[in-house]
Amino acid sequence: MGACGSAAPAAESGVIRPWISTNLAVSIDGKISSIAHQPSGWTTREDHARLLELRRGADALLVGRGTLEADRMTMKIPGQEHQPLRCVVSRRGVFDAAHPLFHSPGGEIHLLVAENPGCDPPCGTVHHGTLAACLATLAEQHGVKRLHCEGGGGLIRALAELDAIDEFHLTLAGHTLFAGHGAPTATGLPGGFLPNSREFEMTHFDPRPESGECFLSYLRRERRAPARRDVVDQ
Ligand SMILES: NC(=O)c1ccc[n+]([C@@H]2O[C@H](COP(=O)([O-])OP(=O)(O)OC[C@H]3O[C@@H](n4cnc5c(N)ncnc54)[C@H](OP(=O)(O)O)[C@@H]3O)[C@@H](O)[C@H]2O)c1
User: Fold this and answer.
1) Where are the alpha helices (DSSP H) in 142-203?
2) 151 lines ligand 1 (CB under 6 A)
């Protein structure tokens, strides 16, 4: 593994990691897919174009193994010569060797296998250990300054638990209602709340009434100590 020439940004927790953005489309009831894990393709062409645009500028793309499988992704930026690293996280490390990712040209493949040190994935650089450690390795040893994550909900939940999301992009798809407790949300299956709040401010609001979608972006708010007045007012 080569050493990275420049320092990556440090998270507020002190953990070294890349700057991380995420992108998801959510149905009007807050689901990212159906109970049967319907693959992507249920939003408009404009949303798909935005998805590709948001990949530009990333040094690495990241998805969970569930999304890799459901969406048969090859994780590339069309028409761009320099392709970002293609990173997939798994706990068990059971990857389908016939998956198109492993048979299509593109950026280097990096696979995180968090809980199965003995496994032998089909190809690529394999990282063992935690998601946080893998993010640090990508930043420090592979020059990843900007990482863009495309889900799914299980992985976004894990990033949110690490408080490691700097910007998130949403397509609110008012034309679709998936419903069902077993349908994944932006933070995985409906379950417990995060241990504390994450603060973001809206930076982009682009409603498309003709298609029933709205493109939104949110940027992480720097944490600040409460102003004295805030404390007194409580
Ligand atoms: N609407 C959208 O924008 C959008 C975007 C993405 C995906 N989706 C949809 O969402 C569904 C999949 O979502 P999902 O939540 O089930 O899957 P996911 O987050 O893509 O993948 C979950 C898997 O990722 C691995 N993983 C998660 N957290 C990890 C961690 N901290 N460390 C190591 N590995 C970790 C585990 O893999 P192992 O099982 O291998 O251990 C886990 O089972 C699909 O239907 C897909 O089409 C929709």
Assistant:
1) 153-161
2) yes
Name the average pLDDT for the chain. Answer: 90
Check: CB of residue 135 under 8 Å from CB of residue 164: yes
H helices, E strands: number in the chain: 5, 9
168 C-alpha vs ligand 1 centroid, how far in Å? 17
Convert the pLDDT of each residue in 121-166 to its tens digit: 988 999 999 999 999 999 999 999 999 999 999 999 999 999 999 9
Per the DSSP assignment, residues forming a β-bridge with 148 are: 21, 61
Residue to mutate, 34, 65, 215, ligand 1, most ligand atoms under 8 Å from C-beta: 65
Atom of ligand 1 nearest to the CA of 114: 33
For 165-187, b/e burial (b = at least 16 CB within 10 A) is bbbbbbbbbeebebeeeebbbbb
Q: What CATH number matches the domain at 19-233, 3.40.430.10, 3.10.105.10, 3.40.50.2300, 3.40.30.10?
A: 3.40.430.10
Share of the chain above pLDDT 70, in %: 88
Tell me which amino acid residue 72 is.
R
pLDDT band at 232 (very low <50, low <70, confident <90, very high): very low
Beta strands in the chain, from DSSP E residues, in sequence order? 19-27, 60-64, 85-90, 109-113, 125-128, 146-149, 167-173, 200-208, 213-220
Residue bearing the CA closest to ligand 1, atom 7: 152
DSSP secondary structure string, 4-22?
PSSPPPBPTTS-B--EEEE
* 0.85 surpassed by pTM: yes
